[in-house]
Amino acid sequence: MKTGPVAALLGLLLLVLTACSGSSEAGERGGEGETPAGAESVDIAIAPGDGATDVATSGALEVTAEHGTLTEVTVTDAEGAAVPGELSGDGTSWRPGEHLANGTDYTVTATGENAGGEEQTRSAAFTTTAADATFTSNWNIADGATVGAGMVLSMTFDTPIEDMAAVRDAVRISAEPHVDVRGHWFGNQRLDFRPEEYWAAGTEVTVSFRVRGVEGAPGVYGTLYEDVTFTVGRSQVTTVDAAAMTMEVVRDGESLRTIPVTTGAPGTPTWNGKMVITEKHEETRMDGSTVGFGGEYDIPDVPHAMRLSTSGTFIHGNYWASGSTFGSENVSHGCVGLQDTQGANDSSTPGSWFYENSMIGDVVEVINSDDDVIAPDNGINGWNMAWAEWGAGQ
């Protein structure tokens, strides 16, 4: 009789303990197996797949996320150089912002998270296709240069380009203050860039050449990957009036000087139009046979010469004509001549003054000449093409 209540009490305690233990285990099992609604694990996919080879330099690389968003994507080559990219607005996809290099190993690491903040990381490695052939690119502005307001960026290529839009879009130009800059193809091996109007004085320009990996023609890829900057130092426009035989130099809106000149003779008039100074030579040889004038002239020491066109138009000093010629008679073979002295050593002459007060990229505009407007690709003279036509259809 004494053991009955004790046994009953022990049995009750055992039942309670067993029940408590059972509830605890069930709760732990339930915590491990449940996922909050809408918080499935993020699923990250990398294309191309890990170990892929012969991958295209454009259009093949993409990282996507399902059931969550991407928080970080890094793509690096074997040297650790990163490939910039852009995340979609909803955070579910990432694509590179430029072409990849040919024949290069890349590693992709992507991290994402679901709605509950749970992170996942995926990685992959791949190799891009090798180039069957490459094309080279050259341009006309030195890194760090200070230029005039008429400067045009001109690129040339050593092989014909078929995908002209892809090559054009791989050249990215930004300016401070901002201005819209567009490219225009002259044929299939020359690409020029300019804004609608002359650059504003003081503009800082950055050019990012991202032609590397661009397939310009089937199997032929670009190699250029470089950044250059230049500054627009001032706005100087010189207007040459061939009829009045004078030229006015205007800098940043202020008239500096009006100078008597001689321009093209009646049989060899000077081009009309806006021309940009592309070269400066304190002295240079001018041989008529190199520009279609046979043996009509060959002057070994032309002073203070500045090139305005590919076809041979210069604005330069002239020591062989009499002083009375300037402002009264047009006698040249198409160049603009200013009074000067032989030897380019007299700083008081108009030719010397203009040379010292000019820079690459300054504009010389000829008006009232008995000739056509110069072609926009004869030199870097694209200012003679209407903005609506510049870049149209490419």
TrEMBL record:
PANTHER family: L,D-TRANSPEPTIDASE, L,D-TRANSPEPTIDASE YCIB-RELATED. Residues 1-26 form the signal peptide. It comes from Streptomyces johnsoniae. Residues 236-367 form the L,D-TPase catalytic domain. Gene3D superfamilies: 2.60.40.3710, 2.60.40.3780, L,D-transpeptidase catalytic domain-like. The active site is at 316 (proton donor/acceptor), 335 (nucleophile). It holds the Pfam family YkuD. This is Ig-like domain-containing protein. Pathway: Cell wall biogenesis; peptidoglycan biosynthesis.
